[in-house]
Predict the structure.
Amino acid sequence: MFLHPDESALLSALAREIGSDSATVQREVAQLEFAGRRKAEPIGAARIVRPDENCRSTDEMERLVLEALGPAVVLSRTLAEAAGRRAAGVDLGREMNPVVVTPRDGETGATGFLRLVRAGALVPVARQADST
């Protein structure tokens, strides 16, 4: 929610996204409402959470969450779509230079770039689809 402060979300969708139950998400959102960070409004039987436009610290919270969780959170969400590569760079405040490699080169580490990447710390950012 804080990495995309302009977006609204259903409480049930938030619960699914983070792997939690709806009651826990409702309780946490109630605390955010009390603190003036978010608003939750009923829409039919559902509740939607949106930013509180009167909250002056939204930008600071976004930067704090990004710093605490790291770029993997942004990348895992935005790299799922080809257009997301550019959006991820904007969200991170960094230039992105995607490198496309063949599956064979990826497996063998055939280039200097791939050897350099493999020698560093790797952070998983996207799950591959289950092939079974």
User: Anything to note?
Assistant: The beta strands are 9-10, 38-43, 46-51. The helical segments are 11-18, 22-34, 58-69, 71-78, 84-92, 103-108, 112-119.
